[in-house]
Amino acid sequence: MRISPAEAITRLKKGEVVALPTETVYGLAASIKCLEAVEEIFELKKRPLNNPLIVHLASVAQLSEFVLSLPPGFTTLSQHFWPGPLTMILPIELSKISSKICAGLSTAAFRIPCHSATLHIIEEVGPLVMPSANVSGSPSSTKAEHVENDFGVLFPVVDGGSCIQGVESTIIHYSESKWHIARLGAIPAEELASNLGYEPKSFKSSSAPICPGQLYRHYAPKAKLHLCDRHENCCNVVIGFSNRTYPHASRLFFLGKDSSAEEAAEALYNVLRQLDLEGIKEAWVDMDFPKEYLWITIAERLCKAALH
Ligand code: TXA
Ligand code: MG
User: Fold this and answer.
1) In what order do the strands lie in the sheet with 170-175?
2) How many A from CA of 111 to the centre of ligand 1?
3) pLDDT, tens only, 286-296
4) Angle, vertex CA 295, rays to CA 299 and CA 51, nearest 5
5) Is the N or the C terminus of the chain less surrounded, counting Cβ atoms within 10 Å?
6) Could you give the CA distance from residue 48 to residue 50 in angstroms, rounded to a whole number?
7) Confidence band, pLDDT 50/70/90 cuts, at residue 308
8) How far is CA 275 from CA 195, 232, 237, 280, 302, in A?
9) DSSP, res 2
10) Which of 46, 90, 168, 297, when mutated, tests ligand 1's pocket best, judged by the most ligand atoms within 8 Å of its CB?
11) Comparing C-alpha atoms, which of 85, 38, 139 is closest to residue 294?
């Protein structure tokens, strides 16, 4: 059910959960002060309680209430990337954020989303938790109808159209004198490097992930995905690029042209969801693209989506 931003404000203040658009993906929002609504989010998403939520702010000033200290580089990063798809994990004053939100950790994840309607809602209601608006494990929602597919047509959602970025925020944390990537996302490591002066590294998959959410199956449609390193090997139902030819394909889903990682990111979850809407059981994915820049995030999402 589509609701206006004004109605979202009223409902959030009453302690209800609503879905809001951001520039990355849609989120299930609750005020950080309404713990029943926070609990409802975990239930709605079927999310394990040990997977913490990101706190969404409208301004850097709102951080001072929660955060103990700001790591070196924080100010340049926040000035450059906020509002935007960068989430920073910061040490918090424990009494200021419910342990339900940060899953008992001594840190919380923060970001300022770049979406005018949602920023206005946060200004009116105060900080909001906002995990991606999908049932845990399935592809995130990048359109209002995706939210309705997961939570029912009566679920209240502010319709902001298609999310521009299409993949979640990049999550970083600071340890051993450097920022590290805890979750790949809409901001590529190369872009962070030009701001930090060094390229933040991702944790190796063998080590325990810093983001508890990375432990779980993610982004996956019901359809089985076969990842093809060479585009000529794609056959039957193919997820590929509109400027390429796939002689063995019986059905094609496009992620845009192979020259634009941004287009591919924007289309990604819609295409994965489309497979399930059409009852498709298997699809072959053209992974024949450079493993750099935003393409690395797209490849990581597809690899996780292919795990069953
Ligand atoms: O783009 C986004 O970040 C979207 C939009 C709606 O803002 N939100 C989003 O939230 O992707 P969610 O809940 O789907 O993913 C949040 C991730 C999880 O993997 C969680 O484990 C991690 O952030 N996280 C949250 N707080 C953390 C903390 N204190 N330490 C480490 N990881 C944390
Ligand atoms: Mg998520």
Assistant:
1) 18-20, 27-31, 128-129, 54-56, 107-111, 86-91, 170-175, 178-183
2) 10
3) 999 999 999 99
4) 55
5) C
6) 5
7) confident
8) 38, 21, 9, 5, 14
9) B
10) 168
11) 85
